[in-house]
Structures are given as C-alpha cells and as structure tokens.
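Bumping with the actual sequence this time:
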Amino acid sequence: MMDTNWATMDPDGLLEGAISPAPLPRVLILTPVKDAARFLPNYFSMLKSLSYPHSLISIGLLESDSQDETFATASEATSQLASSLRRARVWKHDFGYRIPVDTPRWEFTIQPQRRSVLARSRNQLLFRALDDEDWVLWLDVDVIEYPSDLIERLLATHREIVQPHCVREYGGATFDLNAWRDRGRLRLQDLRSEGTFAELHAVGGTALWIKADIHRDGLIFPSFPYGKRNPYLRQARGELETEGLGMMALDMGYKLWGMPHLEVLHHPD
C-alpha cells in the first residue's frame, strides 16, 4: 500500500485542522478546608503525583473558620505549586460556625447546620474558582490516596457526574455514606457486583467528578432542604449539600454514576 504524504496532498496546510487531535480537557480541582493543616502536606503531595498534564490542572481551595494554620499552610504550598499548574488559588471566607466541643462531626443533631455551612462553602469556592475549565473534580483534603491516573480514568468514563468509591481500606466498607441509591438502602459497597458503573440517586463530595457546564447551568450544593418532589428523595423535608446536589442533578435530567471499584482512600479518622 502506498503511504499517504499529507504535505504533498495539502501543500497549503488546509487539512491541518481536520486531522489535528482535539485538545485535552482543562480540569479544576476544588477543595474546601477547615482545621486541615495536618492533611495539607499529603494533599499537595498527591496532587503532584497526578499523571495528567499539570499545565491543564487548576486548583482552588477555600479556607473557613480554622483555628490552626490551615490558611497559611495552604497559601504557601499553593504558591510553590503555582508555576507548574495552570492556575492555583486559595481564598478565605469565614461562616462563624464551629462544631460544639466534644461533638463528633457525624453527630446526627448537628448535620442540618453543619452541612448547610459546608454547602455554602462549596458554592463560594465554585463561584470564585470556576473559569474556563471543562471538568471539576471535588476532592476532600482528607482523601489521602488515589490512583495517579485518577483524572484519566474519570475522563475515560464519558459520563457527566461520577462518584469514585471512598473507603478507609481497599476493598472495605464505603466511607462516604452520602453516595447512595434507593433512599439510602444501598451504598457503593453493596453495588460492587454491578461492575464498573452503578447508578446512584445521591452523591457525596469526598471525590466527585462533574462536567463544568452543568455547574454553569445552575447545579449547586443546596444549603437548604431541596427536592421535596423528587421521587428518589430519602428525607421528606429534602436533601442538603452533596445529596441535595444529586437531587438537583436528577431534576435537571442528568444521571449519577458510582464506580464501586475505583477506590480512593480516606484518612482513618
């Protein structure tokens, strides 16, 4: 077979645009932080280990109400990384909220107020940080380990909202209990038999992949109970924060997907 010489066939370069590969997507990693100074060294170390081109990655952090050196630590680390990333910013916005002393953060009675504040924090960060990126990866600061090709794997799903499986130990129980199906009866640990993808009715925020245009179209983290008419609702009053985002995404006509076998590791605490 005769080799094709594109330069000979197209001496003026008119076909160049037709055969050039599409540019790789731009990715924005967003992380709200509070009293997280101890997690930040590993957080930034894991970011550096990502195999996706760093020139296409932007990061944004919003620090709120910390009583440690979170803001100073994040600012210094971000400035050191800025030259290798597309963009890197840290913002501060306090909400005046503290979890009561000796109360664990998962205590049921504090969840409405705690998660309302967290939703506001996520929205503040989103509105400040999102520019021209194609995808947003929400990543909690206490996710301590994930595959270096995490972004490539998420892009390869060709799905618009995807939840990796956050666990405390590989192959173990689901940590992020805000990702569920059937009104909370099924978690990702229960859906491993479904294969690579499992449909969800709500998502968590430990690691969450969203097409940026969906945020631009109005998808936010409700700081108020949302979804009273949604048939997948778990609580009659509505859902907050990431679960509220899941309800809103369903109302907008999108599907939510979990990846039971794409595991990311959460800190043991």
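The tokens above came from a reply further down the thread. The CA atoms of residues 232 and 238 lie 10 Å apart.
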